[in-house]
Amino acid sequence: MTLSNFLADELQNKQQILQLIELAKTIKNHPADYANALQGKSVAMIFEKPSLRTHVSFDIGIAKLGGHALYLGQQNGKLGERERVSDYAKNLSCYADAIVARVFSHDSITGLAEHASVPVVNALCDLYHPCQGLADFVTISEHFDDLSKVKLAYLGDGNNVSNSLMIIAAILGVDFTLVCPAGHGAQQAMIDKAQALASESGSKFMVTSDITVLGQQDVIYTDTWISMGNEGAQNKAALLETFKPFQVNHDLVNKVGASKVMHCQPAHLEEEITTALFDDENYSVVFQQAENRMWAQNAVLVSLLAGV
């Protein structure tokens, strides 16, 4: 597998994504075999946005591979303000073997990749969450032997998570339905991208604001209705009322026949998902997703730095 960076979901083809999924599961099942995969390697981790799972899964995951992670937090300011993104990238390339960046703008990711002489990994931006998306499909593959037969639906706010999910689904040939309230869907450019990829793979891709047309599904996915940093929005009450019909609960799961429910966390319980369903181990795989973040990211780093 040849990877130079890990920036956006559509930059990997079907074979590369499937290989990353299998490598993630192999590392997960045989971690000792990869204990020295990143020996002598250092990874600089830029975090413009706060994080629990991304920070911990990268930091501990890199340690499990024998590497060293350096956390660069919000005290350094927004990329491009204190110093140019190009300077940031060139300086870090002098010291680190790879750069992981969780940023506000995708432009920051592309700027880092353009000017860095080491691989860059997108740990989240405004358009994509490719590490989350990869981990999610690792999780789905652990429950469904043939991904091409899976029907996956995302309910809620069209955001970076749903963008990555629908693009990976389209590449892999997974039927995908995006269900968002009117005015809260994905950007048209992202929808067009997913539609074109679905046409190539032969999968079905549907976008709707009418939850009543949601047919049989295998997996239901949801995310917070109010994005990180907007929790104090003045129109929060109105937003919650708009999204209320799109809540994921036992009634919905039973209606569509789904066997698994996913959430990337943090969850706002009793808003986008009920507490009972989130904690229901017969359906919920949310903590399996969280664990698989580490294994999926390790697969990306091993591919980038160890040539596997």
UniProtKB/TrEMBL annotation:
Its EC number is 2.1.3.3. GO terms for biological process: citrulline biosynthetic process; L-arginine biosynthetic process via ornithine. Residues 149-303 form the Aspartate/ornithine carbamoyltransferase Asp/Orn-binding domain. It is an enzyme of class 2 (transferase). Keywords: Transferase. It comes from the Bacteria. Residues 6-142 form the Aspartate/ornithine carbamoyltransferase carbamoyl-P binding domain. SUPFAM superfamilies: Aspartate/ornithine carbamoyltransferase (SSF53671). It catalyses: carbamoyl phosphate + L-ornithine = L-citrulline + phosphate + H(+). InterPro entries: Asp/Orn_carbamoyltranf_P-bd, Asp/Orn_carbamoylTrfase, Asp/Orn_carbamoylTrfase_sf, Asp_carbamoyltransf_Asp/Orn-bd, Orn/put_carbamltrans. One of its GO terms (molecular function) is amino acid binding. Belongs to the aspartate/ornithine carbamoyltransferase superfamily. OTCase family. This is Ornithine carbamoyltransferase. It comes from Thalassotalea algicola.
